[in-house]
Amino acid sequence: MFFSLSFLFLQWDAINEMDEYFTPIHTYQVCNVMSPSQNNWLRSGWIPREGARRIYIEVKFTLRDCNSMPGVLGTCKETFNLFYYESDRAVGSAIRENQFIKIDTIAADESFTGVDLGVRRLKLNTEVRGVGPLSRRGFYLAFQDIGACIALTSVRVYYKRCVGVSRNLAVFTDVVTGADSSSLVEVRGQCVDHAEERDTPKMYCSAEGEWLVPIGRCVCSAGFEEHRDSCVACEVGFYKPVAGDGPCGKCPQHSHSETRAAVSCPCDSNYYRAADDPPAAPCSRPPSAPVNVISSVNGTSVVLEWDRPLDTGGRSDLQYSILCQRCSGDGPCEDCTRSGSAAVRFIPRQSGLTESRVTVLNLVAHTNYSFRILATNAVTHLSNEASPYTVVNITTNQAAPSEVLSIRQENASQNSVTLMWHEPDQPNGVILEYDLKYYEKQSYSTLKTRNTSALVSGLKPGTKYIFQVRARTSAGCGRFSQNVEIQTGKAGDQNSAAGRSRSTALCAVLYSSLCMFLCVPLCLWGCMCVCVRGWVCVCVYRHCGYSKAFQDSDEEKMHYQNGHVSFPDARFYIDPHTYEDPCQAVHEFAREIEASRIKIEKIIGSGEFGEVCYGRMRLPGKRDIPVALKTLKAGYTEKQKRDFLAEASIMAQFDHPNVIRLEGVVTHSKPVMIITEYMENGSLDAFLRRHDGQFTIIQLVGLLRGVAAGMTYLSNLGYIHRDLAARNILVNSNLVCKVSDFGLSRVLEDDPDAAYTTSGGKIPIRWTAPEAIAYRKFSSSSDVWSYGVVMWEVMSYGERPYWNLTNRDVIKSVEEGYRLPAPMGCPAALHTLMLDCWQKDRNERPRFCQIVTVLDKLIRNPENLKSMDTLCSKNLLGLNPGFASWVVGVCMSSFVDAWVLPGYSSFLLLLKSTHVIYLLECVCVCVCVCARVCVIVMDC
Known about the structure:
Elements: E1 7-8, E2 13-18, E3 24-31, E4 40-44, E5 47-48, E6 55-63, E7 79-87, E8 101-107, H1 114-118, E9 125-131, E10 138-145, E11 149-158, E12 161-162, E13 165-167, E14 170-172, E15 175-176, E16 185-188, E17 190-191, E18 195-205, E19 211-220, E20 224-226, E21 231-233, E22 238-239, E23 249-250, E24 291-298, E25 301-307, E26 319-327, E27 334-335, E28 345-347, E29 357-361, E30 368-376, E31 389-395, E32 407-412, E33 417-421, E34 433-440, E35 443-449, E36 453-456, E37 464-473, E38 476-477, E39 484-487, H2 493-512, H3 520-526, E40 527-531, E41 536-541, E42 559-561, E43 564-566, H4 582-589, E44 598-606, E45 611-617, E46 625-631, H5 638-652, E47 662-666, E48 673-677, H6 684-690, H7 697-716, E49 729-731, E50 737-739, E51 754-756, E52 762-764, H8 770-775, H9 780-795, H10 807-815, H11 828-837, H12 848-860, H13 873-876, H14 881-889, H15 896-900, H16 907-911, H17 915-922, E53 923-925, E54 933-937
Antiparallel strand pairs: 1-4, 2-3, 3-11, 4-10, 5-10, 6-9, 6-11, 7-8, 7-10, 12-15, 13-14, 14-17, 16-18, 18-19, 20-21, 22-23, 24-25, 25-29, 26-27, 26-30, 28-29, 30-31, 32-33, 33-36, 34-35, 34-37, 37-38, 37-39, 40-41, 40-53, 41-54, 42-43, 44-45, 45-46, 46-48, 47-48, 49-50, 51-52
Catalytic activity: L-tyrosyl-[protein] + ATP = O-phospho-L-tyrosyl-[protein] + ADP + H(+)
Domain Fibronectin type-III: 286-399, 400-491
Membrane topology: Single-pass type I membrane protein
């Protein structure tokens, strides 16, 4: 920006000349070089500042070379001075010379001589000087000559500014530069029409009048898009839901816009958008009815299965609901769940189903039912039309009776109780018998009767007992009734004498029964009496099933309210192989982790699908954590990918401190990875072999307890492991055991302990229950068998089960009744629990929750672990398998060495030997039918 100038020439002369091109020029000249001490001033008029804080003075001038003029060497100068003075108004000539502030002394870059003057060559010099900061309303300029021959041809005064521009959809207006040469003036921009600030738009104006450092920006508002530094409205059929940089988008499928600048596209008729659907989502509609319904009736339960609707409505969030109606012969159908009817149960639930399968329980026998299966999605409730459904009608079969509802006490004495009850409301057939269960503290007994009354005798005086009754038909047993608590009468002196008399009689009968010694094998499985050379003989019953005395008293109880059973909330494991797309299952259950957050540090092994690595995972705002990574090898088949992702989908459903934890998966980049917590001590079998003999019995029981707790959790979810072994248990730095390896249908190519089955898969023979080997019937009970082998592995510090026997010999020995003997130093209580896990009848094996209870009691009462089974493992291999199992069962391990060395490998050989006399002296045999523990006073 330029200022207009006027000059008060004072001692300078105003002269009009011609330049070398004969162009007229107006100059101010002074050339008093002959006289010394010159002080000639040329001053401008008052110049308004006009908002400028720094001004620039451009001076064009010519200057005579002093050497070209004779006789002036002492008085001639070749410089002049530039001054300025600030004021708020014009003050005329009242300014004194000493009030001016010197800007600079200006010298010529080149000067002219007499020769130049003759040819009119001026040799102009141009100098620019800046002045600032200025604060008054205006200023004066002044030029001082001190003895030079000079002519001013041009004086231009101006200031700089940044010219207004538009950047990032923001407008920046003109702005004057700063006060000094290094200052930056911050300027805030204003968004253009139909735009809004994303970050405050700013730019800086430099001292040279240039825009620098653009910061922030504006974006076009919803319904508008950017076009040549402006925002224009979206056309019809297009929309933009939010402010941003993006362009307008075409309306999603089944939607439209009718005006310009649309921020959303309304759905077409009969199409809807859910509340949580983004504006970019296509409109959808309710699904059609499910198809291909299949019903499987089993007694009073039915399994319903169906296929997805042919029209899903354009959505993937399908859910199913079941409506149940009970239909009589001639009357109308009524709701199954109406008040007063039996509590019909739907597994996993009645509505909100994500799988196309449901199990309906507690139906009435020989009754017609009608089920309506509806498919819904997130927009079903927005439609005014009734949801379509598929109907399936079924008739139930014979079923177990309903619960016995009322039990009353008829009579009670100090040793017996008489109970009576009514037949169940729904007998569902002919009642064959009733089971009456009664227990005191932590053990219970069962009494069977065909009548609706029973006398329970042999009870303790002055003791509270809990009684329950259930009915049984040919279809099975019903549920137990509610608990009834009854206390027996207190004992008297007369009753005590009678008790002593009965004990004496019992001893007499027992002593006379020694003639039955030839039945020792049969009897010893029932009851064993060991004499300690005195009057006391303890008879211990060896129960073929699982002893309920080990259970907590509330393990078998159900909770009742208002006469109805209250079932706990159940959570079920979902088999990922039911999904058509394995990626859908893994994304539904597992968390996707960005590959950039994973750092692989080393390879620690190889698995079925690829390498197993150790690495670290970065967590936002937290420390990196160590992780184990399973990778999917290159060149994998589609089946390998399905099995690999299925294992991740399985692990993602588990959340228990004794089950390996899945951190997440990487599927959006290669290699595909499963990320789990890192277990520092590796597999349990290898860990035990590295630390052979270094742990106490309590520590080993603690390891076993962790495995049992994890399996309890898995079995409660309905998950069957199929390959439970110490090699598939991982141990962390705190000695916490965690169940791992959940790959289903695995092909264990490198496992020498596996054998082919008829279906082509492999089974680890040494850990698998007989029914699973023979019939491929895997269940939680078969996992219990495997757990018993894990117990044996732990107590033997990782020794191989069945040592060097072949798989065929193992199968044959187990079928003949042979069971693994107790490892060296193994407490008898633990080996007894192992034998319970190896019951041939899977229904006689304990449940995992019962195993946890037993181990907890052993941990709380370590004195029960002091009784050791000293049977040598190797010596048992010399015995007939059935004879070896009998030896373990009757706790006669100490006789093995004495029998194996002479060659007594079977019971018949032993009976023929002279050792039978020794056995007669030390072993008393009795047959206990009703009692589990008999304490008998007698003389051996």
